[in-house]
Please model this.
Amino acid sequence: MSNSTGTVLESYAMNGGGGAYSYTKNSYLQRAAANPAEAKIHEEITEKLDIKNLYSTSNTLRVADLGCSVGPNTLAAMHNVLEAMKHKYQIQGPASKLPEFQVFYNDHASNDFNTLFASLPPERQYFAAGVPGSFYSRLFPESSLHFVHSSYALQWLSKIPEEVLDKNSPAWNKGRIHYTNAAEDVGSAYAAQFAKDMEIFLDARAKELVVGGMMVLIMPSIPDGIPNSCVPSGVMFDLLGSSLMDMAKEEIISESQVDSFNLPVYAASPKETKEIVERNGYFSIERIETITPFSKIAVQLGTRCCTMHLRAGMEGIISNHFGNKIIDELFDRFDRKAEEYSYLLNASYTAGTQLFVVLTRK
Model:
């Protein structure tokens, strides 16, 4: 099914395969960040998801992970969700036979599904399928899903806000690649794009989830009142942009190339997210809270770890714009800057920089 916006949606695949710079080898920060949510998901399913009622209308319970990438994080997340659903079902009807489960792994068509499928546990107790396509569009038939999960995916916008690339706009983001430390108009353009994308996302999921179905969203967040320059991702994006500008000054790339490149990533505040969900109207908010995913990231894991994770997530989009010849040098420069400015990472504000949202379909 075509996307509901009528536009071609951008694709930002993580590095595939199992090499040194792959997302498979460099996604344990995301895993560590998502770990605190596991018990909360189990708690929400146990207390608020009526498995028995959902099963009464379907012989199979269907779960989707949106923005799954290549694993192993998605596999662990789906295992956790299914174990919680089985536990709840046994509480509600201990003498009953467990329902069958089907798990849909969704990401862009450019995602390395081959690596993901090769990693599927052979002893899994569910039917697995891949669903290529943007989650900023319809992906499933109406009222076909019972549970939707998405972790560290919704920070990716469907596209870069047009205003930040327009030389005649007050939001033109000249010399920068993100809204961190940029003019207020730039941040507003990013926020507006996020709001549009989330409205499309919620509308699509409202059609696909059955009434009473649950959706759990985990995403990077910015605490209310805290500037993006004070959180780890903001510091890293600023250093990456500075590395690109240094290369432009040395004429390795052109300054106009940097001016026409922005990272389509946005961290929303809890207040923003709550207002968008309430305005949409299709979901009840069961829980919305911030979590502290980890602390003192550079001290614990080192700047090289940050560099590898950033490269695994951003190499594709950077290569598409600048070509792949600059990649090694760019991330070498970034690594040196991250080491030089490690005190900024160490001092960055990590408390409450992850948003945990639980919604049920009205």
